[in-house]
Amino acid sequence: MSMVLFDVPGPKARVRHKIMAVVGIAAVLAAIVYVVMRFIVTDQFSSRRLDWINYKQIQLSLVDAIGNTLSAFAVGAVLALAFGAIFAAARLSDHAWVRTPAAVIVEVFRAIPLVIMMFFFYYGLPQAGIKLTAFTAVVVSLMLYNGSVLAEVFRAGINSLPKGQSEAAYALGMRKTQVMTFVLLPQALRAMLPTIISQLVVLLKDTALGFLITYEELLRWGTRIGGDAPNFGRPMISVMIVVAAIYIGLCLLLTWLATYLEKRNRRNKKVIHVDADDIPEMASV
């Protein structure tokens, strides 16, 4: 039995919707054409504003900026995943003295804007005698914010699993740590993989905020080349188009990876047989 949550549009409504869709698409196309024409009129795509691409030193600095962006992303992603897994397990603990502080930490770092955390670690801590590099401040901020979000993702994934999974594991004599590590968490990771990859895409784009604390990542490189290159007519628009294209490419790679892993998991699903001898508690029974 299906439940309809809206009124099915009639003939007049369908015609009205089609007209609105055509008008909306036409308005978007008109806006794009207008912007492109303004770019052409102001010579944003002139050869002079594109000459910067041919300079080897600029190309090398671009490679360095991409490397810095990927470094912050890689370290931040690994730490955020670890942070999320640990605090998801803590939030599911049977002990209130573990569960309550973990919930407070997760909610606090989810609520604080990422920029504020970066400013606190880079500009605030030195006043207390603790000096962090821009890279460290970016990575720690990414870990705390995105790790808190991932903790909720992992917790939701674990809670969505059938209760029989954990009950069967407990019946085999496994401890709660073993149940969480070997039974629940791997299944939650597979179930929540699209959401996890989506959050990692957010983490990748969040690395761009590092330019606010002088971290030499891709966006800071773009603002420096685009705004401080008078010999090339200050090619901010062309540089930002290149920067945006690189970010789009990196995000598409992550999306492709998520699709590949999801298909592989569906294709390679197998039943794993576990012998009682493999479990220390059962071997002695």
What is the topology?
Layout: H1 11-41, H2 47-50, H3 56-91, H4 96-111, H5 114-124, H6 134-159, H7 163-171, H8 176-191, H9 193-206, H10 218-227, H11 236-267, H12 280-283
Helix pairs in contact: 3-4, 3-6, 3-10, 4-6, 5-6, 6-8, 6-9, 7-8, 9-11, 10-11
Report on this structure:
Belongs to the binding-protein-dependent transport system permease family. Keywords: Cell membrane, Membrane, Transmembrane, Transmembrane helix, Transport. Its main location: membrane. GO terms for molecular function: transmembrane transporter activity. With 285 residues, this protein is mainly α. It folds into two domains: 17-48; 55-268, MetI-like (MetI-like fold, Orthogonal Bundle), CATH 1.10.3720.10. The protein has twelve helices and no strands. It has helices at 11-41, 47-50, 56-91, 96-111, 114-124, 134-159, 163-171, 176-191, 193-206, 218-227, 236-267, 280-283. The radius of gyration is 25 Å and the shape is globular. The mean pLDDT is 84.
Protein structure class:
mainly alpha
What kind of oligomer do you see?
single chain
Beta content? under 5%
Please give the alpha-carbon distance between the first and last residues: 50 Å
CATH architectural name of the largest domain: Orthogonal Bundle
CATH topology of the largest domain, what is it called? MetI-like fold
Helix content: over 70%
Could you give me the name of the CATH homologous superfamily of the largest domain?
MetI-like
Number of strands: 0
Average pLDDT metric: 84
Summarize the structure.
With 285 residues, this protein is mostly helical. It has helices spanning 11-41, 47-50, 56-91, 96-111, 114-124, 134-159, 163-171, 176-191, 193-206, 218-227, 236-267, 280-283.
